[in-house]
Amino acid sequence: MKVAIAGYAQEGEINFAYWQKLGATLTIFDEKQPKYPVPEGVDVVIGPDAFHRLHGFDLVVRTASLNPRKIHTDGTVWSATNEFFAKCPAPIIGVTGTKGKGTTCSLITEILRAAGKTVHLVGNIGVPALQTLPRIKSLDLVVFELSSFQLWDLKKSPETAVVLMVEPDHMDIHASMAEYVEAKAQIATHQKPADLLVYHPTNRYSAEVAATSLAQKKRYLTREGAYVQDNAIMIEENRICATQEVGLKGAHNIENICAAITAAWNYTQDTAAIKKAVTNFKGLPHRLEEVGSVKGVLYVNDSYASAPGATSAAIRSFTQPEVLICGGYDRGIRYDELAAAIAEQSNIKKVVLIGETRQKLAEALRNHSFHKTLILDSKQMSDVVKAATQDAAAGDVVLLSPGCPSFDMFNDFTDRGERFKSAVKELGG
Q1: What are the pLDDT digits (tens) for 45-104?
Q2: 275 lies in the same domain as 301
Q3: Are 355 and 328 in contact (CB under 8 A)?
């Protein structure tokens, strides 16, 4: 079998190794010189027209961020996600949305493991799916975090699909919001009547995705699934725990918990296990992560917040005065809703604006009569943290929640978050 590997970075390297083990004849295609080492003796096609030269192959395996529409071939366009779904022997719980995917996937996994299930967490949040595939047994469960890039051309939907709130994102990659939602919808489009779809109760785009599914549907935060009543998390009249007992901050995380419980309930009704999981789970790195206090100021790392909605949720998680660090790579979206959310928060003392979007964010904030901003040109996180600290007093919070991707200044959100933590450590001596 002749296989073309379209795009050769980390995922391309994994794709290459997988199909090499299957005995395929492989050729690598990329528009730019690969940063990852190419195996000796392998044909490589490099150039701006590389993805137009994919003829004569049985299979073209695209990297996730490569839009299938850019690929010109007479063969079958495929992906690691499609391969995993086709070969996985266990039921898959797939989770998508614009924000909260990682937290919700982790919560589902913790709930099911607490109930004694063997669970594999894969996708953006876990181990690469194809590397996990050989270890999965038919009686196991798989939790798969699915981005729009992975879903673009998915041919099979998961048995349980979770659709969190969907908001504009990746507009630098997707041609339109309609295309973005269309990609998200693949998580549901191929479901069967015996499957389950869990979705957000009020989000327009989540409802649009849900409408494409033939599965049984449940809205979380309603009595169809897990919900909140009298400051307690409930499901089917079963009290799980008080909201103040959960280990995560913020109303948005109560939503994520309810989504996770609704999905997990399809596989376990062990309320004690569910309570143990949601009360013990303290969150993921770079998601409202408390870094520490310096001179009475609490520093919080929310670097994972690469969309405006995530930052809007983050700023509402604190009642004490906040200095917000915001901005980053320009994805081509508007920031009016984020600006409105910031302006509505009376506890925000200052917004330190960084990255490519700093001027765009400043303008959006001015349009909402918010002028307590500092536009910073520096690309050094140590400078950013020092600037934010200038306006912080004992009892305040300095919150890094950028609302934008990191690629203009940092390698990724992890790099951004780790640099923030290092800068805070420097403050403390």
Answers
A1: 999 999 999 999 999 999 988 988 899 999 999 999 999 999 999 999 999 998 889 899
A2: no
A3: yes
Tell me, yes or no, whether 66 and 200 share the same domain: no
Dihedral pair phi/psi, residue 424, rounded to 5°: -65, -40
As a whole number of angstroms, the distance between CA 334 and CA 340 comes to 12
Angle at 325 between CA 321 and CA 327, to 5 degrees: 145
Pick from 238, 253, 280: which residue ends a domain? 280
253-280 pLDDT, tens digit per residue, is 999 999 999 999 999 999 999 999 999 9
Which residue, among 104, 265, 266, has the nearest Cα to 200 in the 3D structure? 104
Q: How many domains does the chain have?
A: 3
Q: Are residues 272 and 336 in the same domain?
A: no
What is the tens place of the pLDDT at every residue in 79-88? 999 999 999 9
pTM for this predicted structure: 0.79
Nearest of 406, 395, 381 to residue 297 by alpha carbon: 395
Domain containing 120 equals 83-280
End position of a domain, from candidates 29, 56, 74: 74
CA 279 from chain centre, in angstroms, equals 22
Question: Which residue do the tokens 């050729």 mark?
Answer: 27
243 and 344, same domain (yes or no): no
Phi first, then psi: give them for residue 423, nearest 5 degrees: -65, -40
Q: What percent of the chain has pLDDT over 70?
A: 98
